[in-house]
Write a structure and sequence with these properties.
This protein is an alpha/beta fold and 732 residues long. The chain has 4 domains: 5-187, Beta Barrel (OB fold (Dihydrolipoamide Acetyltransferase, E2P)); 189-248 and 685-732, no CATH class; 262-461, P-loop containing nucleotide triphosphate hydrolases (Rossmann fold), CATH 3.40.50; 471-514 and 529-663, 3-Layer(aba) Sandwich (Rossmann fold), CATH 3.40.50.300. Helices cover 38% and strands 18% of the residues. It contains 27 helices and 21 strands. The strands form 4 sheets. The protein has a 7-stranded parallel β-sheet with strand order 11-12-10-13-14-9-15, with helices on both faces. A 6-stranded parallel β-sheet has the order 16-21-20-17-19-18, sandwiched between helices. Strands 2-3-4-6-5 form a 5-stranded mixed barrel. The longest helix has 32 residues, at 218-249. The chain is globular, with a radius of gyration of 29 Å.
Length: 732
Amino acid sequence: MDLVPALEEPLKKVLGPATAKVMAEHLGLHTVGDLLHHYPRRYEERGQLTRLSDLPMEEHVTVVAQVADARLHSFASARAPRGKGQRLEVTITDGSGRLQLVFFGNGVHKPHKELLPGTRAMFAGKVSVFNRRLQLAHPAYELLHADTDDPVEDWAGALIPLYPATAKLESWKIGKAVQTVLPSAGEAVDPLPEPLRAGRGLVSLPEALQKIHRPQTKADIASARDRLKWDEAFVLQVALARRRHADAQLPAVPRRPGPDGLLGAFDDRLPFTLTDGQQRVSREIFEDLATEHPMHRLLQGEVGSGKTLVALRAMLAVVDAGGQAAMLAPTEVLAQQHHRSVVEMMGELAEGGMLGGAEHATKVVLLTGSMGAAARRRVLLDLATGEAGIVIGTHALIEDKVQFHDLGLVVVDEQHRFGVEQRDALRGKGKQPPHLLVMTATPIPRTVAMTVFGDLETSVLDQLPAGRSPIASHVVPAADKPHFLARAWERVREEVDGGHQAYVVCPRIGDEEEDGKKARSAEDEAERRPPLAVLDVAARLAEGPLHGLRVEVLHGRMAPEDKDAVMRRFAAGETAVLVATTVIEVGVNVPNATAMVIMDADRFGVSQLHQLRGRVGRGSAPGLCLLVTEMPEASAARQRLGAVAATRDGFELSRLDLEQRREGDVLGQAQSGARSSLRVLTVVDDEEIIAEARKEATAVVAADPELERLPGLRTALDALLDEERERYLEKG
């Protein structure tokens, strides 16, 4: 965050090339400043034991615990000398729960001597499941002795900091590295304006860094975190405030629809009445479109709340006003689905220039990367001449050859699937900056909206259209009760026999190279089995419990024309069961599909499960969603699935999702290409800080947009948000 010489010092000069290389490759830490801002995730008190009950699956963790039991087993092994192998099983406890550690082969000798009952140590490893019990296989460990000669005592006081770590770099090694660079914290430049810091009673940045890494008391941790939270919230909000300020200076063409045009004709042919929410959000959008500055609006809503209809009415309003509208979808399946549904909703109003087209009709075209050359040329010509008022497409819309006659509105569907440059390129195709409407079907808590979408005005659709059916959701514990899974397939068959259809969702495709059959050793068995795959599950279902039904597969590596053909057959009711990856997660609308079985459901996130579930119950018949898992009942993953099954409130689930994910995911490092800036700020709990920081940042930027009078803040902003990341924040 602070670009000053001491904090800019490369870690290889301070810690040596080997340690620096591991820190750079596995934690993204390159400088002294990076390491100082790699804060402990939590702290253990010497003399107290940690809780083992909430360990996250498949993640590297560090725990402080006491050895309760250690047993050495021998077993036959072709690879071991004289046919004997060895396995050391160590049980550690926190007083209320237990965790098993497993060591194999030559790796048993040292821990067998050191990990005796009663010994306390820090253990680091990847949490896995074996025989339905949580375990760490071959964990690294560091003994905690009471005598002061222990090397851990050199850097850990009464409170032991536990750092976000990896398999290659344990927490205690990071702690020792921090001890080496901590004197440089005194040179950190404070980014907060002095009146703000003093007015809120916050400690200085050097003091906060010292206290976060080497606290003497819990009060030290609290004061350090309060200060560092403000740094993160304030610098982010300044970046967003500067984007809002810059956007407010941009010109745009006002787009006001006429009273008797395409929009009016479309509304007249709708077979239903818009919900109050749809009418309210449409008014907000139309007011923005009528201004001389570009609209920047986020449209979020529950699965199935009618966002596409609202977006279509906005596009029709722009076409009425003489402009063109483009909708950007993340996948070809979704682009084709949107094109089909828009053309169906518009009817003859989508047949501009064609025989039978209505008086106010426009042309609605589809542009994807897999189109043939002739069809592509026709679409490009229609866009360049203005013949096509609406285009729906994938990233193919962004290519240099695509020219618009007068692009007035860009609608980005499921924006988190797109990179910054992609959205920028499309917005740059207008004569003046076009209006922007970003849609997401993932409900977002207010704090996240302020943090991630801080430069967008937000519209919320929280009302489902009349006629939507309830969805019953149940967890199917396949390992505990295998007959429940058999019953799940019976339920699918019952739905099909009743004239309906079903989805089966799997975490992966199944033709990956690493799927080759491998001989598994005892060590391998300690790892969790690979995720279930579409191709394997589809074959088993077609031969087994769903024999006689038409089962088809859909996944992202199929040819576009094959994907479209599969979706058309499913939409037409020709296919009974569609076994798919998450390619069906958003936008896919088949009202006759009433059942969904999600295999290995614990491998999906909460919001993703909510999205997937939203594919059923879209018609008049009730929906059924079955979440299949092999995770033990006491695990956090099973509890998460239980929460999903218990509620259909997307906002409640999004909050749960946020609480269970690392805060670093909030800004979506996959979206921005940079490590998340959120280390101590928690967007669930720190709503008040975020709101106050937004208010302070807006005032600071209004008074000094270039931050000329605040060089410390400017420096922090430059370090935190390089140019690419600022552009990312501009779009959310």
